[in-house]
Fold:
Amino acid sequence: MARAKREQAKETKTGKVERHTCTLPRVPDRILPPTLNPNRARLIRMNEKKWANGTRLRYFFFDRRTDGPRGGWVGPEAQQNAVREAFDAWKELGIGLEFEEVPDREDAEIRIGFLQGDGAWSYVGRDVVDVARDPNERTMNFGWDLTTAYGRDTALHEIGHTLGFPHEHQNPYAGIEWNEPAVYDYFGGPPNNWDDETIRWNILRKIPPGEASGSEWDPDSIMHYTFPAGVIEQPAEYRNGLTPEPGLSEKDVEWARQFYPALEQQEEAELRAYESQRLAIQPGEQVNFRIRPQFTRRYRIQTFGAADTMLALFENVNGAPRFVAGDDDSGADRNARLRERLYRGGDYVLRIRLYYSHLAGETAVFMW
Ligand SMILES: [Zn+2]
Structure:
């Protein structure tokens, strides 16, 4: 299988592999208080970019009406289809996220362009809505053909970023030692022509412990680059190059299902006003509560206890979850809270992901 991937790469006369490679937009790491204990910081990093499970992510392809300032964002049908198939492939893992194509960019969290020569990239996880806020801007671009075996992997890879997964070759547990001059030489040359800072951001920088998907390195991950001979010094077995197996690896599937388990597997207890509910979950896990308000009024919802949590409130509108409000208290001393007007007869779901709790089980949620 790996051969098919290698065949997609162009061999130059010198035998050097030339391949376009994903380049992530540079977003500053969030600064956490230096006094935070390292385990708490690690757990926050692991979860902070992930979506609330059950989120419906809507995607939009730029069209002639909404094309970029200099044009070129509109992709041919075959390219769009390759992206649709990649969304389907992630969904077919049985994850709890939903994907929906929408005709208006204002309705979409994910806005996709096909500007050739602009590389392939995506914002990572919730940066898609927290950083890329302007509906005129892309959150994802595909700069080369997606209908080849390599192109199909590119589509899976960029969607992996959108789901919150970082580059696997930057996993601090990988223990890769680079031949740095060779890395600068290879990625600074055609077809990528990256500047030094782009190379540091996408390859040489080790991502903070915890932000990596798992504590073990997976060289076959869809989130791992292909590397030619000579750029990896250690582990020695990759001195002749590293080509991940095509498609999603076993670990990719495991991580996706760990962060976004099928919703049917998750019970929804009812959260009623003035009845507290204990959060009996582990860091990284999520619990969901159904809310059916008895009165139309402004409600407060808050977590209690020394914990870092992410709250996301959705309303079921014609069977589809619509995001109402969210809060995230990770790394802060306060608790996550919402203050929202809820409507009698409405059907709401509160999703709470636990990043960290000082004492296991000593966290609760209360609505009043
Ligand atoms: Zn990437």
About this structure: The CA atoms of residues 77 and 110 lie 18 Å apart.
